[in-house]
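Researcher: Please translate sequence to C-alpha cells.
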Amino acid sequence: MIGKIAWKNMWFKPLNTVLSVLLLTASVSIITVLILLQKQFEEQFTSSMDDIDLVLGAKGSPLQLVLSSVYQIDAPPGNINYLEAKRWMENPFVASAIPLAYGDNYKGYKIIGTTPDYISKYGGEVVQGNVFQKDFEVVVGYEIAQNLGLKVGDTFLGTHGDAEEGGEVHEDKPYTIVGITSKTGKILDNVILSNIESVWNMHDHDHSHEGEEEHVHADGEVHNHDHEHDHEHTADCDHEHSEVVSYEGKEITAVLIKFRNKMGIVTWPRMIPQNTEMQAASPAIEINRLFSLFGVGLTALQYLAYGIMLISGISIFVALYNTLKERKFEFALLRVNGATRFQLLKLVLIESLLLCITGFVFGMIFGRIALYFISLSSQAEFKMAFNPYQFIWDKEGILFLITLFVGVLAALIPAIKAYYLNISKTLANA
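Model: Translation complete:
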C-alpha cells in the first residue's frame, strides 16, 4: 500500500523526478562502463601475455614492441636478423620460442608468419581443416572467418603493410585458407597465420637461384640442394651450406620467449641490448605501466561520475524537501486516517529509494548500450571486443549499495520532518 502511494507521489512533480532520475542514470552509466572496461581490459591483456616472459625485437620503445607482438596493436619498432635471434631462441634457458614475421594484411587483419605453436599458445585449435604446411597456406582466426564469411578452400590476396588501405596488393601470390581456429576470446581470433617462409617469399623479389631447389621440411627448416653438386657431401657440410644460403639476410619481427626458470627474465633485458642489435621487453612490466597510465584516466572519470551521483542526491533532496511543504495537508490527512509517524517516515524514504533504484536500473541498461558501441569501435580499430552482458557482481553490487545510500541520505531530513509533522497545526492552517 505504502509502495503504491510512494510511486504515485514520485510523479507529483514529474519534471523534478525526471531530472533526478536522469542525473542518477548518467552517473551509474559512466561508472558501469568504467567498471566493465577496466575489468575486461585487464583480463584480455593479462590472458594474452600468459606464458610469455620476454619479447625479443628491434630496439626502440619496449611498450611498442610488446603491444605489436603480443596484442597486435600498433606497428612494430622494426625487424631483427633471424640468424641472430635464432641463436638466442636455442639457448638452454629457453623453454619455448615462437618467432613472428609481419608484412601483410587482409582487410585490416594482420597476416603473421609463425609456427603452429602460436595457435596452442593461445589455447586454440584448428576446428576446420588443417594447420598450414606449405607456403601461402593460412589458418584464419574465428572472428575473421565469421566477419568476412571465409571458409576452408577460399583464396585471397594480401596487401603490403599493416593498414587496410594504401598498401600494394600482391596479385601474383594468393593465400589459400586451409584451416579455421576455434573461438578463444583472445588475439588468436583476429589474426591470419602462415609459415614464416610465406612472408619471406612474398617479399623476396629474388628468391629463386639457378640450379637450386628449395624444400620446406616438417621442422620448418629450409634446405637448398644444388643439383650440380656432388651428392656425396657429408651431412654436416650440407647442413652448413643450407643454413648460410637459406637464412642469410632473412628477418623476422619478434620472438615470444618463455624460460625454463626466472633467471632469463632478470638477465636477458640487460644482456640482449649489450650484445646484439635487439632488445628484450617484459610484457608484465610494460603492461603494468600501461595499466597505471590507464588507471589514472579511469580514476578521474570515476570521480566525475560519483560527483554527478552526489549532484543527483542533492537534486532528490531538494525535490523531496520542496514537495514536503506542499504535501503537509496530505500527510496530516493520512495521520487522521490512521497512519503512524513511522509510516510517514517510511513513505518519504521509499519515494527516494524508488527514484534511486529507477536511476540505477536505467544506468545499468544505458551503460551496457554504451559499452556495446564502444566494443564495435574498438573491434574495428584495435580488434578488441568487450562483452556488455557481463555482470561484475562485487563491484556493481557495491555501486547499488552506494546508490541506495545516496537515496537514504537525500530523504533523511524530509523524512524526519514528515515524522514530526504537527497534525493540528497543519489542519488549522489548511
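Researcher: Any highlights?
Model: The longest strand covers residues 94-106.
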